[in-house]
Amino acid sequence: MGVYDFVAKDPEDYIEIATKHATSSSSKKVEIRQLIMTRAGKNLFRQEEGPKGWADIFFDIATRPRTLRWRDEIVLDIEKQVIQ
Question: Where is mean pLDDT largest: 21-30, 41-50, 68-77?
Answer without folding.
Answer: 21-30
